[in-house]
Every structure is written in C-alpha cells, then in structure tokens.
Amino acid sequence: MTTQIAVVGATGTLGSFVVDLVRRTPGLELHAGLSSRDDLDDVRGADLVVDVTHPAVSPGIVEHVVRAGLPVLVGTSGWNAERVAKLRTVVADVGGPGVLVVPNFSLGSVLATRFATMAARFYESVEIVEAHHQGKVDSPSGTAVRTAELIAEARRELGPVSAPFSDQRARGQQVASVPVHSMRLRGVVAKQEVVFGGEGETLTLTHDTISQRAYEQGLLVAMAEAPRVEGVVVGLDSVLPLD
Questions:
Q1: Non-local CB neighbours of 240 within 8 Å, separated by 6+ positions
Q2: Tell me, what CATH number does 115's domain have?
Q3: Quick check: is 136 catalytic?
Q4: Residues spanned by the domain of 94
Q5: 29 shares a domain with 75
Q6: What CA–CA distance (Å, rounded) separates 63 from 159?
Q7: How many CB atoms lie within 10 A of CB 57?
Q8: What average pLDDT does the structure give for the chain?
Q9: The sheet that has 190-198: what strands, in order across it?
Q10: 50: β partners
Q11: Number of structural domains in the chain
Q12: Is 146 helix (H, G, I), strand (E, B) or coil?
C-alpha cells in the first residue's frame, strides 16, 4: 500500500529534502508539494500532510489541515508549549486525526536530549548553547526549547535550575528557567550543547548535525507513525522505543 504525502513548505531547504526523500522511498508517493502561499485545499486526498514552513505561518496551516480532517506531521520550528497547548484545543474540538510535532528529526539529537533529561536530576546548574546556519529565522531553536522544557519536567519535584543574573541580557533567554544562548553562523548546519555544572566538574552533552542526511531515518519513522497518533504528540522520542 502506498502512502500519499503532501508537503507544505516544499520549496524550502528542509521541504525540498522531504520531497526528495518521499520520491525515492518505496511505499511513499508525493501527493502534492506546496509552498506556504499555495491553496491548502490541494492537500485533500493525502494520507499525511507534512508542514515544514515558517514559524509565523505554521500554526494557521496546521489548524487548516486539522480542520480538513487530515493527520499532520509538523517539522517547522517555533512550536513552544503555548502553541502546542492551543493546538491541543483545536484537535480536541475537531475530534479527528492527530498531530505529531517533531522539533528535530535527527536520532542523535533525540538521544542527546534524552540523556540531558537523565542528567538534569543530578545538576541544578544547566545552560544550553545552540548554533544554526544564518538562514534560520527563529531563536531559540525548537530543539533547544524542547530540551529545556524536558529538563524542567525532569526537575519538577526538585525545583527550577539555578540561573543567576537572569536579568542581564547576556545571560541568554530563559526557557522553562533554563538559560539558552543562540548563535547563527555561516558554516554551521546545527549544533547543541547542554552544559551541566556541579561541584568540581562539568558535564557537556554535544550533538552536531553535519548534513541533512541525519534527518532521513527520523523522518521516515515520523511519517510512518504520524497517521496513527491520537491528539497532539510532541517529539520524535514519543514514537521511538527508547524506554
């Protein structure tokens, strides 16, 4: 059985990568490749809609597709806890297919974030440094936001992380109490460091994305699982056998 995939944001860097992956993967077929300005009704008839557009337009696109009764895989960055909460309300109101929101399709990134949540219980001093290419329009990255939120969840009974002098602009943006520092540099694809500080030691968890090939396996897993999710599910880790 062939799965029909519609890609919104197909003209972008990640979108064109998804389109190419769909075209060369047995069992997948490109139903439509749209830009964010095209008629969204062209996604009708697809088995899954993949949104890889822009943070400013993604929520409206996803809501439109959800109300059309189609499952959605969201690969657009910028989906923080507030946006996800609003989306949950829409999906519950429609009562139709679910939405899978994936901040990062790299398996290594997912594992690094999982390791960070494990370490968070043992260190109250935590900061995140993330770097992406100059063309990335949002900061902090969706991966950094997701990592910070999971660190805070892991420390829910222990209290927030220690972030002295948080009123100073150079201390980064606090996400769920975790300071996040963003760099946008030529020559970088994606990199994230989560630094833990303890008495007499530091622990640094680093993940480097060298090329978009790192996203292939995660994208294939996400496209296979997204039509089966119920409600709103966040993170590739939610559909991987990590436990």
A1: 107, 110, 221
A2: 3.30.360.10
A3: yes
A4: 3-101+213-239
A5: yes
A6: 35
A7: 15
A8: 96
A9: 173-175, 178-184, 125-132, 190-198, 201-209
A10: 7, 73
A11: 2
A12: helix
Distances (CA, A) of 83 to 71, 89, 101, 200, 232: 17, 10, 11, 39, 11
> 222 with 197, same domain?
no
Same domain, 11 and 91: yes
Which position among 54, 64, 132, 191 bears the catalytic label? 132
Structure confidence by residue, pLDDT tens digits, 22-79: 999 999 999 999 998 999 999 999 999 999 999 999 999 999 999 999 999 999 988 9
**CA 125, CA 127: separation in Å to the nearest integer?**
7
What span, in angstroms and rounded, lies between the C-alpha atoms of 143 and 153? Answer: 15
Distance CA 71, CA 228 (A): 8
Specify the amino acid at residue 46: A
Note whether 61 and 8 are within 8 A (CB): yes
Q: What is the side-by-side strand order in the sheet with 99-101?
A: 28-34, 3-8, 48-51, 72-74, 99-101, 232-234
Asked whether 176 and 151 are in contact (CB, 8 A), the reply is: yes
> Can you give the CATH number for the domain in which 31 is found?
3.40.50.720
Eight-state DSSP code of residue 155: T
b/e sequence 8-29, b meaning 16+ C-beta within 10 Å: bbbbbebbbbbbebbeeeeebe
Mark whether 133 is an active-site residue: no
**Annotated catalytic residue within 54, 133, 136, 191:** 136
71-105 pLDDT, tens digit per residue, is: 999 999 889 889 999 999 999 999 989 999 999 99
Give the pair of three-digit tokens for residue 33: 């490749």
Structure tokens, 60: 């409206």
